[in-house]
């Protein structure tokens, strides 16, 4: 999550506030370590009840305005609110098995995530796959620690997890703050592995993108508005014949039709400045089930010549229109143009390491670097508001999956949707609820006034 915040906040924002980031990191790591150590003997000097009450208030407040959200935003708010309320209720209830239940839930989540990360890294074998395996092993070790009752018989589960979160967040902040003092290229952007993305920031430091007439938007851009557009052809939508329904798999990985042909979908990015980014293999790759597992390796032997499509009109006419679109107003055309200038020099295509979806995701990050201070201001309020936005947490998890597994059209679609909520922020739930309530009251009062006249 920290790396994603570095991208969205931008180089200039970080360089000016590296001392504050350093202090925040040291404070977070210190509090986390104190919480973890305090819980080891089962006697808590740091009371968890105030934290649980805050969690409960946040959960109830989220549920109170969840109905004002749109589409996936509404679902996300309900999930967040219910999760917070259930966790807080277990802590505050005094139920004798509450700590055991929470421990099993947290341990299972760590175990599942660690196994998934190890399995995907072992299959894909991208450049830094060994580090991903090490991270997965660490998550499994944490899961084992939470599963077994020693030394606190599950009473320390909540402070353990809270302490670990604060320690990891603080450590990342410390590392990034120490580099931010002499920052020339965004270190978070450089982590994508795309040299072009780093180059996009190198020559346009200080670029702030187009000045926006407003900073809060009621919805996505209208068709007549100039906006960055992410086109996604979903696997199911591009199957040659009827696809076999496989929940999650056909959404995020690939769809298989009744003839056994695999469809992985496609992604492209288009800007009003005539930039069109759509990487495709120059020769169609055989995606039969027998060869598909071999093609998943992000190794050089699976590199093939690729080509960039000239524009959306040409690609959609030759194939079919995109099945999903995500449009974003707040982006930097200079950073996007510089990214495209460097990236298109290499036409190599790799099904998992350098494909259409990874290309679009990297281009999107280049275009959105430093976007949030343009709408939330350049002070610490931007930092605080980002942390309080649920879409930041979702985007961070999607980015992690894309980097440790492989970027797919489904992941890119959800990633673009989450980033659009951060770059083009919607009104807060309470603001939207007030507007809706005021409109409804006005409708009730207006007919009565008419009858009186």
Describe the structure in brief:
The protein is of the alpha+beta class and 453 residues long. It has helices at residues 2-9, 11-16, 18-39, 49-65, 72-93, 98-124, 129-147, 157-180, 187-190, 195-202, 249-252, 289-295, 312-318, 333-343, 356-368, 372-376, 380-387, 390-404, 409-423, 429-452; strands spanning 228-233, 243-244, 255-257, 262-263, 266-270, 276-277, 279-281, 304-308, 324-328, 348-349. The relative contact order is 0.14.
Describe the structure.
There is one protein chain. The protein is of the alpha+beta class and 453 residues long. It has two domains: 2-180, no CATH class; 192-426, no CATH class. Helices cover 59% and strands 8% of the residues. The chain contains 20 helices and ten strands. It has helices spanning 2-9, 11-16, 18-39, 49-65, 72-93, 98-124, 129-147, 157-180, 187-190, 195-202, 249-252, 289-295, 312-318, 333-343, 356-368, 372-376, 380-387, 390-404, 409-423, 429-452, and strands at residues 228-233, 243-244, 255-257, 262-263, 266-270, 276-277, 279-281, 304-308, 324-328, 348-349. Strands 6-5-1-9 form a four-stranded antiparallel beta sheet, covered by helices on one side. A hairpin with a 5-residue loop joins β5 and β6. α10 packs across α14 (333-343). The longest helix has 27 residues, at 98-124. The protein is globular, with a radius of gyration of 24 Å. The model has no long low-confidence stretch (mean pLDDT 80).
